[in-house]
């Protein structure tokens, strides 16, 4: 075990391992590209849907059950299904990652909207605000903390799952995991897993700190 961790430390800190198209730096950039793009697409889908459901109160059943759908989604199975339909491309990976991220964004956006005090909305309407003004000037600002939490959770889930890009012969940190398994190289497998975990934790801490900074004046 000691030898394994020693070899892992050498693998992670080797200058050669960080350079070139197969180096950690390049694979990390690919992994972040996949993750950020998928999360942005999911946000473009999930935020309007969550805002609409939360504002109108219609479709709440959909929002509530999307969370269970996201947890039960067979990500690799979805990648294979889209891969068979579209051929060798990044589309299967992005479809799976977006499908994974949308439920967290929709449910948290919906929860944030429904948490807004109805008296506050009634007061805004009483002052002559129209529906879209109530939505964007009252409900959305008050719901932002929970909405940002949903975006953060979605991004972390996507980062942890973006290793599936290597399953269909693309890059990212998952390359080390799948190549290591194929080569029976346990150090490489552990190295890839550790890198993914570190990236996920660092992003979570950074976004959590940003969220606390942005809403530091909000009362509990």
Write the layout of secondary structure elements.
Layout: H1 2-13, H2 24-56, H3 60-72, H4 75-86, H5 91-114, H6 118-126, H7 131-161, H8 174-183, H9 186-214
Outline of this structure?
The protein has nine helices and no strands.
Second rung of CATH, namely the architecture of the domain at 25-174:
Orthogonal Bundle
**CATH fold group of the domain at 25-174:** MetI-like fold
Which value, in Å, is the CA radius of gyration? 21 Å
CATH superfamily of the domain at 25-174: MetI-like
What is the total tally of β strands? Answer: 0
Shape: elongated
Largest sheet: none
User: What is the CATH top level name of the domain at 25-174?
Assistant: Mainly Alpha
Distance between the termini: 47 Å
Unreliable stretches covering 5 or more consecutive residues: none
Beta-strand percent range: under 5%
Run of helices and strands: HHHHHHHHH
Averaging pLDDT over every residue, what do you get? 86
Helix-and-strand structural type: mainly alpha
Number of helix segments? 9
Roughly how much helix do the residues carry, as a percent range? over 70%
């Amino acid at each position: 075990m000691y030898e394994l961790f020693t070899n892992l430390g050498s693998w992670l800190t080797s200058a050669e391992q960080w350079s070139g198209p197969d180096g950690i730096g390049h694979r990390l950039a690919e992994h972040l590209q996949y993750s950020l793009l998928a999360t942005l697409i999911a946000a473009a889908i999930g935020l309007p849907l969550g805002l609409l459901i939360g504002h109108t109160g219609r479709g709440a059943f959909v929002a509530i059950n999307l969370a269970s759908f996201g947890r039960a989604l067979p990500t690799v199975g979805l990648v294979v299904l889209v891969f068979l339909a579209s051929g060798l491309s990044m589309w299967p990976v992005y479809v799976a990652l977006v499908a994974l991220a949308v439920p967290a964004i929709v449910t948290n956006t919906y929860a944030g909207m429904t948490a807004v005090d109805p008296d506050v909305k009634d007061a805004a309407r009483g002052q002559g605000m129209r529906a879209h003004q109530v939505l964007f000037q009252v409900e959305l600002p008050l719901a932002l903390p929970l909405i940002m939490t949903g975006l953060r959770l979605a991004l972390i889930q996507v980062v942890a799952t973006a290793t599936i890009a290597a399953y269909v012969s693309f890059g990212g940190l998952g390359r080390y995991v799948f190549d290591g398994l194929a080569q029976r190289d346990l150090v490489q497998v552990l190295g890839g897993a550790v890198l993914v975990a570190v990236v996920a934790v660092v992003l979570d801490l950074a976004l959590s700190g940003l969220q606390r900074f942005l809403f530091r004046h909000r009362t509990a």
